[in-house]
């Protein structure tokens, strides 16, 4: 019998130890943003280091199906750019909206980043 694979919003259980590590070792820009996202400060619940399929999302709002990714210098290599494109494509097939910011943007313009996130939340809310 040939089972058809379906796309799922569940994370890969094998990623659990790595997710725990990432949660305990947030980068400085991730920590800055998390302090603004946590406890529904922007009106929605966000999860950090949330798994979907084989991927781990920096921040995810299940209610809006919104992923926020914070990219450092490692995301500037051609291999990582390719991997980010694959990740975004996979998530978009599941109906997840993906927005990306660079570390430097978060550190230098946190309030501008928050405004952009709120703007996107308003477009996505039903």
Would you write up a description of this structure?
It is a single chain. This protein has 126 residues and is α+β, with helices and mostly antiparallel strands. It has a single domain (13-124), classed as VSR Endonuclease (Endonuclease, Chain A, 3-Layer(aba) Sandwich), CATH 3.40.960. The chain is 44% helix and 20% strand. It contains five helices and four strands; from the N terminus they run ααβββαβαα. It has helices at residues 16-24, 28-37, 78-93, 103-108, 110-124, and strands at residues 47-52, 55-61, 66-71, 97-102. The protein has a four-stranded mixed β-sheet with strand order 1-2-3-4, sandwiched between helices. A hairpin with a 2-residue loop joins strand 1 (47-52) and strand 2 (55-61). The protein is globular. The termini are far apart. Residues 1-7 have low confidence and may be disordered. Residues 19-119 form the DUF559 domain. This is DUF559 domain-containing protein. It holds the Pfam family DUF559.
Say what oligomer this is: single chain
Radius of gyration: 15 Å
CATH architectural label: 3-Layer(aba) Sandwich
Shape: globular
Structural class: alpha+beta
* CATH homologous superfamily assignment: VSR Endonuclease
Sheet with the most strands, sense and barrel status: 4 strands, mixed
Neighbour order of strands in the largest sheet: 1-2-3-4
The level-1 CATH class: Alpha Beta
- Average pLDDT number: 84
Cα separation of the termini? 40 Å
* CATH third-tier fold name: Endonuclease, Chain A
Question: So how many helices?
Answer: 5
Domain DUF559: 19-119
Organism: Candidatus Gottesmanbacteria bacterium GW2011_GWB1_43_11
Pfam families: DUF559
Protein name: DUF559 domain-containing protein
């Amino acid at each position: 019998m040939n089972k058809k694979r379906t796309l799922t919003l569940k994370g890969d259980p094998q990623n659990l130890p790595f997710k725990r590590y990432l949660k305990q070792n947030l980068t400085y820009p991730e920590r800055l943003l998390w302090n603004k996202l946590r406890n529904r400060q922007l009106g929605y619940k966000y999860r950090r280091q949330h798994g979907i399929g084989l991927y781990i999302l920096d921040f995810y709002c299940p209610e809006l199906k919104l992923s926020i990714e914070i990219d450092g210098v490692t995301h500037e290599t051609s291999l990582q750019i390719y991997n980010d494109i694959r990740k975004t494509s996979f998530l978009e097939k599941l109906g997840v909206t993906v927005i990306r910011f660079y570390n430097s943007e978060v550190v230098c313009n946190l309030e501008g980043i928050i405004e952009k996130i709120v703007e996107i939340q308003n477009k996505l809310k039903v």
